[in-house]
Amino acid sequence: MAKAAVVLVLALPAIAGLMKADKSSAENRRLATLPALPHSWQEFLRVPGQLDAWANDHFGMRDGLVRSMTRLRYRLFGEFPTSQVARGRHGRNFLASHSPALPPFSAVTAACGIGTRASPGTVEYINRMFADFHRMGLQPRLLIVPSVPPVYSADMPAWLEQRCASPQTPVTQVLDDPQLVAEARQNIYYPLGEMRAIAARGTSLFPKNWFHWSGPGLGEVAQLSVQHFWQGAAGAAQPPLRTREDWLQSDIAHLFPGLHLGSVVTRPDYEASGVQACRGDACFPDLQGVGDKLGDVSLYRNPAAPARRLVLVTDSFGSMVAGWYARHYRTVEHFATNNMGQLSAEEIGRLKRHLFADAGQTDLLFLYHDGGAIYNVLKAGAEPLHRDAASTVVAAH
User: Fold this and answer.
1) Which residues contact 279 (CB under 8 A, 6 or more apart)?
2) In the prediction, which pLDDT does 66 show?
3) What does each C-alpha distance from 322 to 190, 297, 325, 336 come to in angstroms?
4) What string of DSSP letters covers 316-354?
5) In the chain, which stretches have pLDDT less than 70?
6) Residue 297's beta-bridge partner residues?
7) 90-94 CB contacts, 8 Å cutoff, 24+ apart
8) Predicted pLDDT of residue 262
9) According to the model, what pLDDT value does residue 9 have?
């Protein structure tokens, strides 16, 4: 009887796997697939190893076991199942690297400037970007958002704190580069000191288990950027947006399946503030299909705000801040460019016509976090919008 029980227990994963395929959603990696039928001796000899890898990745109850192991490692040893996430101090967990293939803490060293510099050609690209847009008759601004490590340096592991607290970062190296032309430099805002001051007052900018920013501090940064770029005193006269608090799961929770690490996040309450908020492709009928491919677009209308339009072109940091600008603008349109490479030439043309319409009543703001701005994410997202500047002229209406 005991032997039968042992055999049954050992067989349970196989039985579960046969009865219901495990989706294996608990890991942030591509799982092994069943090998195709071999067409050569070389392929035939590889089949046993491929079958073994497939069985290891797809046995029954695998997801539950992975989640249980993740919880056990975190509670007993404070460890995450990936080098992409690390524990800091004062209850903060943070994104340590953007890929398991990158060195541990590379996201921190890249933001704080520990043995790193901006990607080659960054200054030259920023110069060209502003020159191209000016040639098109546009006056864009670039807001570079400091990420968690330089803003919350005291929450980093002790060996990183002093270096991340430095006022010198890879972004300041770009801004201080003598090759950066004046017309570009005067249209860039990197509010490192201001965001450190906001955080020091206890106003949240980054929830403690998040990579992206969120919280009431975003409203302050939005107001600072409007005042910095457009001397926007009118928006400051408008009442602040009403807010609500929600408990939200970490935006990097997919990297530690089984752990329920979240934060109470303060966000605008659009309904209570009289703001019409819309997300997704349906918000922009003239861009049908483009919003679906971009995957992160939104529209905000505030009848009580000054009668101007803000176009926000961003990386993934734009999603949570876009709505806060509705205090300052009648219309805020947000487009994330992380998936810009999926657009066809025709779709990029439609997007440009939409973004740059009514230029005389539009403020154009590019918003990228520090890593995105100087490590080619800005270039990948923005370049398709100004590549043909010589043949594109935008008329103000």
Assistant:
1) 297, 298, 299
2) 61
3) 17, 10, 6, 10
4) GGGTTTGGGGGGT-SEEEEEE-TTGGGS-HHHHHHHHHH
5) 1-32, 44, 47, 50-72, 75-77, 232-237, 390-397
6) 335
7) 90/154, 90/155, 90/208, 91/208, 92/148, 92/152, 92/155, 92/208, 92/209, 93/208, 93/209, 93/250, 93/261, 94/148, 94/149, 94/155, 94/156, 94/211
8) 87
9) 46
3-state secondary structure of 157: coil
The SS3 call for residue 107 is helix
H-type helices in the chain, by residue range? Answer: 2-19, 41-58, 62-77, 106-112, 122-135, 148-151, 158-164, 170-176, 182-185, 192-200, 217-230, 233-237, 270-273, 290-294, 345-355, 370-374, 377-386
| Residue 26 one-letter amino acid | A
What is the rounded CA–CA span in Å between residue 366 and residue 8?
60
For the stretch 374-394, pLDDT in tens is 999 999 999 999 998 766 666
Cα separation, 23 vs 58, in Å, equals 8
| Spatial contact of 191 and 220, defined as CB atoms under 8 Å apart | no
Looking up tokens 């690390």, which residue turns up?
A: 86
Token couple for 296: 């992160």
Sort 120 into a burial class: Cβ within 10 Å, 0-12 / 13-18 / 19+. exposed
pLDDT at 397: 45
Strands 297-301 and 309-314 turn out to be unpaired
pLDDT per residue as tens digits for the range 48-65:
776 666 666 555 556 666
Give dist(CA 313, CA 114) in Å, integer.
29
